[in-house]
Amino acid sequence: MALEEPTDMNELVYYTSRDLDNGGEVFCWVKRGKCPACGNGFMGKPKDEKTGKAKIRAKEYVCPECGHTVEKTEYEETLTAEAKYTCPECGKQGETTGPFKRKKVKGVDTLRLQCEHCGGNIDITKKMAKKKE
Predict the structure, then answer these.
(1) How far apart are CA 9 and CA 129, in angstroms?
(2) Residue 10 β-bridge partners
(3) Which of 7, 14, 41, 126 could pair with 65 as two cysteines, CB 3.0-4.6 Å apart?
(4) The whole model's pTM is what?
């Protein structure tokens, strides 16, 4: 399959590099998609007028070319997650792709991909803040 690793963070919607249980690890990314309206620009978060930086908590994505707006969850479900990993189940290295759609696993939002060798689950959980005691 030979996935092409990203060279610029500006072309990504999501990126993570994690150590998994049982000695596994995963490097996962999701590339920005083209605008469904004009097909020219790549969708991105709206920019703050004062600073020029993307609004990280925005609930929508905007095309910089034509101004077309799409709701965050609707847009992200059309994207594809790509990953290079070492499987925690079988220990083999591989590459996989899957829909960028988080599901609840044990009450936590999780991006679940499958190992191409053993079919085991590679779960990438959403990082959560630790409670202060």
Answers:
(1) 24
(2) none
(3) 41
(4) 0.81
* pLDDT above 80 for 132: no
Give the pLDDT mean for 123-133.
Answer: 68
Residues 6 or more apart whose CB falls under 8 angstroms from that of 106 comprise none
Q: pLDDT per residue over 35-75, tens digit each?
A: 888 888 889 888 888 888 888 888 999 998 888 899 998 88
Structure tokens given for 101: 């759609």
The per-residue DSSP string of the chain comes to --PPPPS-GGGEEEEEEEE-GGG-EEEEEEEPPBPTTTSSSBPBPPBPTTT--B-TT-SEEE-TTT--EEEHHHHHTTSEEEEEEE-TTT--EEEEEEE--EEEETTEEEEEEE-TTT--EEEEEPP-PPPP-
C-alpha distances out from residue 48 to 16, 51, 55, Å: 25, 6, 6
